[in-house]
Amino acid sequence: MGGPNIFIKRDDCTGLATGGNKTRKLEFLIPDAIKNKAELIVTVGAVQSNHARQTAAACALMGLKCLIILEQRVKNTPEVYMNSGNVFLDKLFGADVKVCPKNENFLEYSEKVIEDLKSKGTNVYFIPGGGSNSIGALGYVECLNEIIKENNKYNFTQIIHATGSGGTQTGLLAGKKYFNCNIPITGICVRYDKKTQENRVYTEAKKTCEKLQCKVLDKSEVIVYDEYIGTGYGEPTDSMKEATKLLATKEAILLDPVYSGKGFAGLIGLIKNKKFTKNDNVLFIHTGGAVSLSAYEWAF
Fold it and tell me: Which residues form the Tryptophan synthase beta chain-like PALP domain (predicted)?
């Protein structure tokens, strides 16, 4: 492409249930659930949620009961989308799965399910979508620490990643303040528009900085691009398909259709728009999710 040197941090290889970025968050969330004597872990996500799959796996590993509530965000999907990929693995790991009907408000539906469980005396530990709160974000504070330790070899000039629920970017930005790191961090939106995502990430990053008792970031440090979402979350785009095929055929690395595929499409777009020079060393964080490719065969 005639652009910068590109490096990939393989968080798709974190090991838990085929890997992914949620493992880092769950390393902090699951111990907190155990500390709070949780009887049931409840989490939410889209039908092909990588977070749901890894939460189900973490619960299986730790002997915890798990309930996953799924939202149908993608329009006009074939049956394979609803039953294969992450959904199949959710069930294989022993999680109970509820799918919110399309004609119901997802927030109201999930809140009612949780309240019904609590009313029966169940000690529920709720993990938000993507594991994205100030506890889960600590996983990516630690990730940035790893990057900093490696940086004397590479001199990274930019970090790029897909940003959806916002926890990954939140942790990286909070870590940037905690470790006094000056590497710019850019998120490629996969769900929300630029302004919404900036506000979401800044709010959670501020909470995480306060939790770490470090200097709070300035909102101007939250950098995102929303040109690569397409028609919506999880909806296939031409640029995602091109990016996914490029990495598969050139590097034998599998991206996913929802996050890393659109994230890498964003990186390609930034290169085409001359955002980097040939002297830049760009680190792309691969957040995992290739499990869902089988559920998206129809899109390719």
Answer: 3-288
